[in-house]
Amino acid sequence: xxxxxxxxxxxxxxxxxxxxxxxxxxxxxxxxxxxxxxxxxxxxxxxxxxxxxxxxxxxxxxxxxxxxxxxxxxxxxxxxxxxxxxxxxxxxxxxxxxxxxxxxxxxxxxxxxxxxxxxxxxxxxxxxxxxxxxxxxxxxxxxxxxxxxxxxxxxxxxxxxxxxxxxxxxxxxxxxxxxxxxxxxxxxxxxxxxxxxxxxxxxxxxxxxxxxxxxxxxx
Length: 219
Description:
With 219 residues, the chain is an alpha/beta fold.
């Protein structure tokens, strides 16, 4: 299948669909309609049909979607059959929480290395993950063939460390710092600002109440 550029909002929903399809398959369900899927994942059926349409004919009119066929398709699209090792840079309070979590609900993602400037942490194993000093950053990323990093460092250190990550060959950064880091065009950054997300939620609750549908469609 030719590579298809899909909207960012659609890409964010694909793992949600995949998780629920896994649940359906494990419960013995063989087919599902877009309406039934909509009720389960809380995404309107028109959006689901539009999301699926980017990948061709995934269902049949009057029949719905074959659960196993969809599951196999999204498993391939999301690379669920391939383990991806990621690194955590910055093992503070948030970093420790991420190490404890370590994507246990995902079978294909694992934090395999951590890095920190604190000599009391570097050289130890935290939540089963080895923590290296920052001086080992480039060498370990290359040796372990890690291309994706979670960044949870202080804001004033974020850009400098990002520059080092780019030099080490990193292709993707999940940025938990408030700073909007600068990277070359071939590096993708996913910004996760918990304070901003919470403030946005508070704003919508104050102005529209709890029944407003999520309209964050990057399409």
